[in-house]
Amino acid sequence: MPSEFRSLCVESLSKSFSGVNVVRDVSFRIEAGQAVGLIGENGAGKTTLMNCLTGMYRPDKGIIRINDDRAEIRRSRDAFAFGIGMVHQHFMLVPTLSVLENIALGLERSTVFRPVRTLRDEFLQLSRRFGLDVDPDVAAGELAPGEQQRVEIVRILMRGARLLILDEPTSVLSPSETDSFFGSLRRLISEGCAVLLVSHKLDEILTFCSRVLVLRHGRLDGDFSTDGMDMRTITEKMIGDEETVQGSRIVSESGPVILEVRDLTARNDRGIPAIQGITFEVCRGEIFGIAGISGNGQRELAAVLAGVREAERGMIRFDGEDITRVGPRERLERGIACIPEDRLHEGSIGGMSVGENAVLRSFYRAPFARSGWIRKTAVRSFARSLTERFAVVTPSIDTPVRWLSGGNIQKLIAGRELSGSPRMVIASHPTYGLDVRAAEAVRSMLLHCRDEGGGVVLLSEDLDELLEISSRIAVIFRGRLMGIMNHPDIDRQTIGLWMTGVTSSVGPPRPTAHT
Amino acid sequence: MSRFRISITRRSEPGRWFAAGTVCAAIGFGFVLAGCLFALGGVNPLTAIARIIMGSFGSLYGLKETLTKSIPLILCSSGLILAFRARFWNIGAEGQLLAGAVGATFIALRSDGIPGSLVIPAMFVAGAVCGAFWAWIPGILRFRLGVNEVISTLMLNYIIAEFVQYLVYGPWKGSQQFGFPYTDNFHADAVLTTFPGSRIHLVTLGIALICAALVWMVMHHTTFGFSVRAAGESSGAARYAGIHAGRVTVAAVAIGGAMAGLAGVGEVAGIHHHLSYPWSISSGYGYTAIIAAWLARLNPLTAILSSIFLSGILVGGDTIQTAMNLPAATVNVFNGAILFSLIGSEFFMSYRIRIQPKVVP
């Protein structure tokens, strides 16, 4: 591997958008062979900083030096020439093209005719060397997220990247995939690459990185060695000296059954069975967690529970009544709120204002509408109180939601759904991609709902979150529940095994009826 | 190496005055462009442009003609805005207008049994129903069978145009029209009153203005408008909100079609007083209205202004064709130059362009 990359040095980098300083006077240095973490709350400027390094944005001020020589990075091609490459959180592969064709795209040295031929050997060699094996002839769209990520990494290596910027790379990986992923990164580092790891998963930063950069409000708030740091200290560094994460908050007593799901079966958009014979019960005043690696039917289960996807078989009973054929609007009226997985396409409407999104599910009824006419004053005062109560940061309630950060959109959705004191909440990945503070805000909203006697179904990939607040946890794998565990006998290892489809040696998983 | 660097960045929603300024600048640029083309054709560009302005906005006659032609444009563009807000790409206002004309003609030709004062209202109702039906077809095709509405609405334009020809050459061919493919002239009860000394059919003009205002009200102040916008912006979120995106969209499109149908009633009852060739009933109003709608950034009140402006362009083009003895294509070239620069100006509204001196390293 050519070793032209020795160091990246950023000096007083600043970038502002329409007068708002997003990145302010940031300086740091990364040497070849280092793994450095970058953490910060949502909106702290991480993305902008990375975009400056990869040539997507031009910094207003500041100098970037590669190997101590000044580097002018004007576009992404320049970044690669200087050895900087980035893997985005959302992969940028063309789904219908094969892996090798995706690699050839954008590679300057690929030939005009049969571009793939010359690349095969190099691809196979690189991927094998770093443990990033993928079938080079499969269409990228058919690959699992973990495999797509490997392709992305090999692709930027082949384009000349030696400093790898990785944005939330493990959010799509299962625990075992995560281990092998970090193994590959370690091999890359041992061969002279450098890694800048952007992550909300602080434990990964602690174990993998030797240093961590903390961004807060666009400023570099710290450049620490991770030696001797633990989760508590790193969390404190990230959220500042304000509140720390609370401990376990499970209550064991719960009320009568409110939601009963029997033998639920449904197909996904492509007509393939996505959930098969799911059975569980949720009680008043409990949080029922559903763990699992994404893509195992959580999305469809949540949609069927919310009433936006039809159940092929089975029954949903809410408060003693069969609601299997009841639509989403009536379910909401009966007291079932839901926080959908995709906050940008299901939970909110980017082109509509904060105020309109605040009443997105209740605009048609009093007090927001009377005989077909929207009562703007009622909508506005509700939206204003909602944004205040749930600390949604927005320039005004007339701002299109599209301009808000992910965390604020999620707080708006959660606030809207939970403000009507629902009796049941279906929450899918409610804290995904949120910073510590926003995640905590959403979580405490769920806890509040539980304490008021509501039942909560929490579908999440974040095991720590599930363990922290769920009194029972089920694990979903390939559309089936592998088993359900009750607090305090929840065993992390068994959950991990169930998530990968392995039934534990303790015994076969059996659906546990709640007593 | 040049010493300046041009940077292009996305800007947020343009302000009202900035947008208006950009549009005016674009129109000015369009005139310059058209002027160059006139000069190439050996015509004094200043004379030509002066004639256009005189012919459309600068003279009483021109103004009256401009207003006349703006009526169908206002109706069609208001209706299209309803559909476009629901993200339904209706290219079929032209066909819906013709359907309305057919419906009105049907009533007009059989007006004997109807009390005189009810003929006109009946014609408007029939025209609206026919226009709505013609728009409902592609709506239902899209949501039941997944048929792309751009293609179906466009094709339906041709079908209705052929149908109109069939009617005027066949069963509805008038006995007193000396063999021309027209229906018989409408009875006086079926003819709209015009503003004295002009062809402005006032009733339709009033309906058009009311429709534009209604579309604005519906969009911003009713639950139906909320549902239409929600369904258009995000079908996924609309589903969670309990909105039947299909039903709401088809309703919006059909209402929009009804407005185009009203325009068709105005053309046959106010201008021609009979049904004739499709291209003489509507000189592409349904298509021009698409531009009017977008030029107004899908705001129906602004669409009144953009419709009047585009109507002026049409009228001005006709004027130079006759007054300066230019080929018919000149009109199209002129219209094209204006529209080209208007559409190009969209870029400047969405992006900020800065020219900065290069930093010397």
Overview features:
heterodimer; A: 515 residues; alpha/beta; Rossmann fold; 2 domains; 6-stranded mixed β-sheet; 17 helices; disordered C terminus; B: 361 residues; mainly alpha; two-stranded antiparallel sheet; 2 strands; 72% helix
Write the layout of secondary structure elements.
The complex is a heterodimer of chains A (515) and B (361).
Chain A: E1 7-17, E2 20-31, E3 35-40, H1 46-53, E4 61-66, E5 69-70, H2 76-81, E6 84-87, H3 99-104, H4 120-129, H5 145-158, E7 163-167, H6 175-190, E8 194-198, H7 202-208, E9 211-216, E10 219-225, H8 231-239, E11 257-267, E12 273-283, E13 287-291, H9 298-306, E14 313-318, E15 321-322, H10 328-334, E16 336-339, H11 343-347, H12 354-358, E17 369-370, E18 373-374, H13 376-389, H14 406-418, E19 424-428, H15 436-451, E20 455-459, H16 463-469, E21 472-477, E22 480-486, H17 492-499
Parallel strand pairs in A: 3-8, 3-9, 6-7, 7-8, 13-20, 13-21, 16-19, 19-20
Antiparallel strand pairs in A: 1-2, 1-4, 4-5, 9-10, 11-12, 11-14, 14-15, 17-18, 21-22
Chain B: E1 4-10, H1 16-40, H2 45-58, H3 60-85, H4 93-109, H5 116-145, H6 149-169, H7 202-221, H8 223-233, H9 235-240, H10 245-272, H11 278-281, H12 285-295, H13 300-323, H14 329-350, E2 351-357
Antiparallel strand pairs in B: 1-2
Helix pairs in contact in B: 1-2, 1-14, 2-3, 2-13, 3-7, 3-10, 3-12, 3-13, 4-5, 4-6, 4-10, 4-12, 5-6, 5-10, 7-8, 7-10, 7-13, 8-10, 12-13, 13-14
Characterization of the model:
The complex is a heterodimer of chains A (515) and B (361). Chain A is an alpha/beta fold. Chain A has 2 domains: 7-239, Rossmann fold (3-Layer(aba) Sandwich), CATH 3.40.50; 257-499, P-loop containing nucleotide triphosphate hydrolases (Rossmann fold), CATH 3.40.50.300. In chain A, 31% of the residues lie in helices and 25% in strands. Chain A has helices at 46-53, 76-81, 99-104, 120-129, 145-158, 175-190, 202-208, 231-239, 298-306, 328-334, 343-347, 354-358, 376-389, 406-418, 436-451, 463-469, 492-499; strands spanning 7-17, 20-31, 35-40, 61-66, 69-70, 84-87, 163-167, 194-198, 211-216, 219-225, 257-267, 273-283, 287-291, 313-318, 321-322, 336-339, 369-370, 373-374, 424-428, 455-459, 472-477, 480-486. Chain A has a 6-stranded mixed sheet with strand order 6-7-8-3-9-10, sandwiched between helices. A 6-stranded mixed sheet of chain A has the order 16-19-20-13-21-22, with helices on both faces. A 4-stranded antiparallel sheet of chain A has the order 2-1-4-5, with helices on one face. The longest helix of chain A has 16 residues, at 175-190. Chain A is globular and about 70 Å long. With 361 residues, chain B is mainly alpha-helical. Chain B has a domain at 70-297. Helix content of chain B is 72%, strand content 4%. Chain B is built from 14 helices and 2 strands; from the N terminus they run βααααααααααααααβ. Chain B has helices at 16-40, 45-58, 60-85, 93-109, 116-145, 149-169, 202-221, 223-233, 235-240, 245-272, 278-281, 285-295, 300-323, 329-350, and strands at residues 4-10, 351-357. Chain B has a two-stranded antiparallel sheet. Chain B starts with a strand and ends with a strand. The model of chain B has no long low-confidence stretch (mean pLDDT 89). Chain A binds chain B through residues 18, 58, 70, 72, 306, 308, 327-330, 332, 338, 340, 342, 345-352, 356, 360-361, 363-364, 369, 372-374, 376, 400, 403, and chain B through 7, 12-13, 220-227, 229-230, 233-234, 236-242, 361.
